[in-house]
C-alpha cells in the first residue's frame, strides 16, 4: 500500500488560522457583552416602569371605589312625606339632591338642592326654605303668568306673616299677610304714587289708616271693606277739608267742611251734599204727612266779611241739596 506524503504547514498559514480564531473569539465576546448590556438595560427599564404601574393601579382602585360609593350613597330614591307629597330623584341618604316632586293635587315640580329652587309645571318658581317640599319659612315666589313676585314668610305653602308683594303693574305691598291675604298692618303703594298706610282685612283697607292720593289729597280715618266708613278727616288737593262721618265712601251725617277761601259749614250731609233733611234706614228722605221733607238739626254756614274780616257772617238754618231751604214748623224734627 502506498502512503500519502503530508506537506508540512507553513508558518504563515498557522499564523492566519490563529488570527482567525482570535477574531471569532473577540466577536463572540463582543456579542456576549452586548447581550449583557441589553439585559441590564431591560432590567433597569422594568425597574423604572414598575412604580408607574403601581400608581396607575392605585388610581384605578380609587376611581372604582368612588363610583361604587357614589352608586350606593348618591342613588335614586323614592320618598313619601307626611301629607302625601312624594319625591323621585337622586339623594344622599334621605336628603334629596335633584328630582321631581309630586303633590297630592296632581301638580309636579322640579327640585334642585344646590339652588334651593322648586320650578313648578306651570312655570312658577320658588327659592327658599321648605318643609316636606311645601313652602315654609322665608322664600321668594315668582308667578310666571302674572309676573308678580312675593318675598317673605310662608307657612304650609301660603304667604303668611311678614312679606312683600311686588306686582307686575308696579304696585307694591309690604306688611302682614294671613294665608296669602293682606291682613293686619301694612303699606300699599300704587304705581301712580298713591299710598295707604294702615289696617287691612281680606286684601282690603279695613280699620284705621292714612291714604295719600296721587294728586296730594289725604284721608285719615276709618275704613270698612276698602271704603271710607265712620269718622275721618279728608284734605282735598285744592285746600278744602272735611272732618266728619262717612258712609260707604260718601259724606253722610254730621260733618264740618272748610273751603280754602275761608267759608265753613257745620251740619248734616247727605250723599256728599249740604242737606239737613232726615233719611230713614234705607237712605230715603223722610216725608211728613203733608208731603213735606222732614228736617233734622239746623246747619251753620259762615263766610268771611270783607268789611270786618274778624267777624265772619253766619247763616243758621235748613238746607236741601246744597241750597238754603224754607221749612215749615211742622216739617222740623
Q: Concise description?
A:
The chain has 333 residues and is of the alpha+beta class.
Account of the 3D structure:
With 333 residues, the chain is of the alpha+beta class. Helix content is 19%, strand content 46%. It is built from 1 helix and 22 strands. It has a 22-stranded antiparallel sheet that branches. A hairpin with a 5-residue loop joins strand 15 (227-235) and strand 16 (241-247). It is rod-shaped, with a radius of gyration of 51 Å. The mean pLDDT is 89.
Please give a handful of descriptors for the protein shown.
about 325 residues, alpha+beta, 22-stranded antiparallel beta sheet, rod-shaped
Q: What's the number of extended β-strand segments?
A: 22
Order of helices and strands: HEEEEEEEEEEEEEEEEEEEEEE
Low-confidence stretches: none
Mean pLDDT: 89
Overall radius of gyration: 51 Å
Q: Main β-sheet: number of strands, strand sense, barrel status? A: 22 strands, antiparallel
Task: Measure the end-to-end span.
Answer: 192 Å
Report the sheet-strand fraction. Answer: over 45%
The rough form would be described as: rod-shaped
Structural class based on helices, strands and sheet pairing: alpha+beta
Q: Helix segment count?
A: 1
Show the helix and strand layout:
Layout: H1 11-73, E1 74-80, E2 86-92, E3 95-102, E4 108-112, E5 117-120, E6 125-131, E7 134-142, E8 149-155, E9 158-166, E10 172-178, E11 181-189, E12 195-201, E13 204-212, E14 218-224, E15 227-235, E16 241-247, E17 250-258, E18 264-270, E19 273-274, E20 299-303, E21 313-320, E22 323-325
Antiparallel strand pairs: 1-2, 2-3, 3-4, 4-5, 5-6, 6-7, 7-8, 8-9, 9-10, 10-11, 11-12, 12-13, 13-14, 14-15, 15-16, 16-17, 17-18, 18-19, 18-20, 20-21, 21-22
